[in-house]
Amino acid sequence: MSERAVLHVKGRVLAGPDDIRDELWVVGGRISYDRPAGARDIRTVAGWALPGLVDAHCHVGLGPHGPVPQDVAEKQALTDREAGTLLIRDAGSPSDTRWIDDREDLPKIIRAGRHIARTRRYIRGYAHEIEPDDLVAYVAQEARRGDGWVKLVGDWIDRELGDLSAVWPRDALDAAIAEAHRLGARVTAHCFSADSLPDLVGAGIDCVEHATGLTEDLIPLFVEHGVAIVPTLVNIATFPQLAAGGETKFPRWSAHMRRLHERRYDTVRAAYDAGIPVYVGTDAGGTLPHGLVADEVAELVTAGIPPIEALAATTWKARTWLGRPGLEEGAPADLVVYASDPRADVRVLADPQRVVLDGRVTA
């Protein structure tokens, strides 16, 4: 397909839950719903089209032990692209991935800078490990380095306690989140347990990752403050394995992780039913492979979220939340085409027929 060719997508274009078109055109890398006059070099793709999928919790440039070489990060991004993920919120990475912005063949990334954790309270090699007195300064630093987000580690295993516990005092959170907001950045936090959540929400957190500790008494607090969650259920599926590995040394923590895993679907369904915004994120990178976005959407449906809402959590709603366009007139042509209706069976997302990034058919 030449640079001046026109792409014609026909069949069903799902631009939104109530915005379904029969076709769209891609001209100069952008979307048009009007047939271009005099177009001759036309390539036609037929099927069910969605906006490029969103993975709102992904780590490009991160491996099991920290930063990875550029060629490995490139493979991670390509794997996501081939799965239909064309917009990534990178929820913490020690790697500088700005070079990806210059690549027209790789997904667009919204960065949250590097994780900010308490000293010796997170995975080695991943985060800035600091004490509360330095939290404001590091949040300001990562707010300036990122793309409108900052990532905190809200809780982790306390080796003396032998279980998960919150890592930041409330006054430090108040000051740090206020500073992020002053600089125009939103703040999200890794949280497994319940005890870290009241202070984070009270301090003005915008989003919580995983949120396995969300309980009935905390749900109204999230609703009141408009806090979103990204459950990463494909990651939570690994909790039994993690618990087994820590059974001998930290039996209390292992039992806690198993309980969080057992009620994971109930937690997500209760959050959704209460009106808490829920978005798709896989936690790819680190120890999880990339390209799992379809699995996460299917997990949300298993949890009881209606299929159309699970699709919205990785398409229309997710893009609006992150401030990026979908399939609007004049928007960059980032879309994925499937053989059948993903509203009828979200498992269709696992088999994209065509991936279009900035108007170029990449797969």
Structure description:
This protein has 12 helices and 20 strands. It is α/β, with parallel strands linked by helices. The strands form 6 sheets. A 7-stranded mixed beta sheet has the order 3-2-1-4-18-19-20, with no helix packed on it. The protein has a 4-stranded parallel beta sheet with strand order 12-15-16-17. Helix 7 (239-246) runs antiparallel to helix 8. The radius of gyration is 21 Å and the shape is globular. The two termini are 13 Å apart.
Which labels suit this protein?
single chain, 363 residues, 7-stranded mixed sheet, 12 helices, 20 strands
Question: What's a concise summary of this model?
Answer:
This protein has 363 residues and is an alpha/beta fold. It is built from twelve helices and 20 strands.
Query: What sort of overall outline do the alpha carbons produce when their principal axes are compared?
Result: globular
Outline the low-pLDDT stretches. none
N-C termini distance = 13 Å
**Computed CA radius of gyration, to the nearest angstrom:** 21 Å
Share in helix? 25-40%
Largest sheet: 7 strands, mixed
- What is the averaged pLDDT score? 96
Strand content is: 25-35%
Number of strands: 20
Number of helical stretches of at least 4 residues: 12
Assign the structural class, choosing from mainly alpha, mainly beta, alpha/beta, alpha+beta, or little secondary structure. Answer: alpha/beta
